[in-house]
Amino acid sequence: MWKRAESDTSVPDAANKAEIFAQRYAKILEDLKKDPASHGNPLDILLLCRLREQVLKELGFRDIFKKVK
């Protein structure tokens, strides 16, 4: 997933931001492994997608999957 973010030409410094994304999302996943309720909602695929999108948007990414849609 971070490879898609890394290649997003619409985001300045995409490679660096993609690395930050990978670190932040990995931390979220580790938190969820330790405590599945750590982010409030029941752990499901929708929560994982929402958390992923939240981190991507915080870093300036809009739609890293646009090229494959």
From TrEMBL:
Name of the protein described by the UniProt record? Pantothenate kinase 4
The source organism is Trifolium pratense
Q: Which UniProt keywords apply?
A: Kinase, Transferase
Q: Molecular function (GO) terms listed?
A: kinase activity
- Source domain of life is Eukaryota
